[in-house]
Amino acid sequence: MNNRLNNLRKALRENGLDSLLVTQPENRRYLSGFHGSAGYLLITEKKALLATDFRYTEQASRQAPDFEVVRIKGKLSEWFPALVAGASVKKLGFEAEDVSYDAYKQFSGILAEVEMVPVKGMAEKLRTVKEPEEIEYIEKAVAIADAAYDKVSSEIEAGMTEKQVAWEMEKSLRENGSEAIPFEIIVASGPNAALPHARPTDRVINEGEPVVIDMGAKYRGYASDMTRTICVGKPVDKFITIYNIVLDAQEAAESIIKRGMTGQQADSAARDIIEKAGYGEFFGHSLGHGVGLAEHELPHLSPNAEEILGDGMVYTVEPGIYLTGWGGVRIEDTAVMENGRTRVITRARKVRYD
Ligand SMILES: [Mn+2]
Fold first, then answer.
1. Averaged over 194-207, what is the pLDDT?
2. In this predicted model, what pLDDT tens digit does every residue of 294-345 receive, in sequence order?
3. CA 125 to chain centre
């Protein structure tokens, strides 16, 4: 935990700041250990303060031993100036992507001698490289989703609705130990499968058509993310053709993506195959994203991502092809970079057609 604070202080120095106000929930948890849903971290070279209200002060003291817990009450204008003044802050970074315009006005209007400096991605970048314990938690979240998927997918029949399948998956995630549902489960059948982020509907699943199922579990705060595309009954030829292109692209990417590549190069590893097969324009999203305390985080594996991939990063590999009016195929694994290579964590059943 101390290591995380040290790394953040190093980033502050590199950015010419003497302090950071952390408001983003996952960053707050990552840096302090505090799980509560409300609170502010004020981190300086010497101090680590966690300001939270009555509901959370006891929890904060237990979960964030490296932080001094400050109980706050009432309006921001009543407690924020004292908090900042007590920490002898001059150049205070704030998380520009998290602080609302209204909150910013309140923060910046309070103390004339404190300069508020917007920062982007400072704690997020630290979160990109996982510690062994974090990888363990993600592996557990992956295993929970794998078990739920393997059980429920074997019970899917024509005539069930998307919503019914999604609910069975949700129950099974919980039964297998998921502490929350990190994002709404996608079950998209037939033409609905052409929408990458479809919501489950009352549509009845028919034989021969694609069914995209995208789901994840949560364990000790860490998420997993996976997608499988299946077909009830005998698939039409078109399904097999599209499916095999997507699977080839995914397997190629999983063997090609290595330490030192940019997110863009990683993305190309799959995109090149889909483009060569003539479906490039139907793969309209990026190949993958980081997974951790948030189900979508850094790094990006996308056509314009310049960040370099390295050991300890956890990311999804999820190529897809979407054809309006027909449907779509997406196959997604969660993976970790280890010893310079991509190690796939997801083990949920994956259909293969020869
Ligand atoms: Mn994903």
1. 96
2. 999 999 999 999 999 999 999 999 999 999 999 999 999 999 999 999 999 9
3. 13
Give the confidence band of 167 by pLDDT, cuts at 50, 70, 90.
very high
Q: Are 84 and 92 a contacting pair, CB within 8 Å?
A: yes
Measured in Å, residue 184 CA sits from the centre of ligand 1 at 12
Residue 216 has a pLDDT of 98
pTM, two decimals, is 0.96
Q: How far does CA 194 lie from the centroid of its chain?
A: 22
Domains and CATH numbers, the chain: 2-127 (3.40.350.10), 129-344 (3.90.230.10)
Greatest alpha-carbon span in the chain? 71
How much distance in Å is there from the Cα of 94 to the middle of ligand 1? Answer: 28
Band the pLDDT of 106: cuts 50, 70, 90: confident
Residue 1 in this model has a pLDDT that exceeds 70: no
Distance 313 CA to ligand 1 centre (A): 15
Cβ-Cβ contacts under 8 Å for 9 (sequence gap 6 or more): 43, 45
The strand pairing partners of 255, in sequence order, are none
49 CA → ligand 1 middle, Å: 34
Q: Is the pLDDT of residue 198 over 80?
A: yes
Q: Which residue has the tokens 């863009």?
A: 264
Note whether 187 and 294 are within 8 A (CB). Answer: no
Neighbours of ion ligand 1 (CB under 5 A): 225, 316
Cα separation, 168 vs 155, whole angstroms: 10
Name the burial class of residue 150, with classes exposed (0-12), middle (13-18) and buried (19+) by CB atoms within 10 angstroms of its CB.
Answer: middle
Would you call 169 helix, strand, or coil by DSSP? helix
Question: What per-residue confidence (pLDDT) applies to 90?
Answer: 92
Distance 296 CA to ligand 1 centre (A): 7
**Residue 87 alpha carbon to ligand 1 centre in Å:** 40
